[in-house]
Amino acid sequence: MNYIKHLNRIMELFYEDNRLLSSHISMYMALFQVWNANRFLNPTSINRTEIMKAAKINSFSTYTKCLRELHEWQYLEYIPSHNPMHGTRINFYNFCTTDCTTKCTATRTEIVKPTVKLPYINNSNKNKESETVHPPTLEEVFIFFKEKEFPELEAEKFYNYFQSNGWKVGGKAPMKDWQAAARNWMLNTAKFNSHDRTKQSSQQQLKAGNLHTGNDKDYSEPL
User: 5-24, pLDDT tens digit by residue?
Assistant: First the structure.
């Protein structure tokens, strides 16, 4: 059994099968590692605790569900045990042949690296998806501004401004990173507020200066 060809083929099947979740794939890879360690012996006994740890699955119901579905979808043969003295067993199918229902033998064949043929992936839709704008919700903006210790009023201003222009930078290009735009908004707000405070302080000093006259003026001198 050439396990490299087997894995290449199984990954192609995983790519095409939309029923599969990440838990199914991690489960199969954990089971395959045990099968590999047992020199591809069929059937192979498995330990539930070890498989769940290797597959990063914390729920027993998820573990059982994935095993049963992999069995139903003919990725393997699941043989549950109702005897506590005997563990669950798995019959693995040899996917390095065209017949997916052919069980592998216990003999391990010499490993020969084949030419890898991956399925064609159309990147055009992927590029379009990357350009699609996914604007944040008002609640997400509130949370982000709160983490940066900025008032909710500024968060609402930021959200309303970009919501009204379709989340575009400069009114033209789609926004790719709203958090970066929010940080720029905060910087500009801080500068604007600092300028206002300086202007207000100058005005207060002018008022206290009695019509631009100094406090040390000698009023005994003629005008």
Answer: 888 999 999 999 999 999 99
From 39, 181, 61, select the one nearest 111 (Cα to Cα).
39
Spatial contact of 189 and 151, defined as CB atoms under 8 Å apart: no
Quote the Cα angle for 179-185-188, to 5°.
145
Give CA separation, 171 vs 162, 178, 181, 184, in Å. Answer: 9, 14, 13, 16
Full-model pTM: 0.45
Give the Å distances, CA to CA, from 130 to 127, 144, 164, 177, 212.
5, 22, 22, 12, 60
60-72 and 22-37 are packed helices; what angle lies between their axes, rounded to 10 degrees?
A: 80
Q: Both tokens of residue 89?
A: 């067993």
User: What does each C-alpha distance from 111 to 1, 32, 102, 136, 182 come to in angstroms?
Assistant: 8, 16, 19, 50, 54
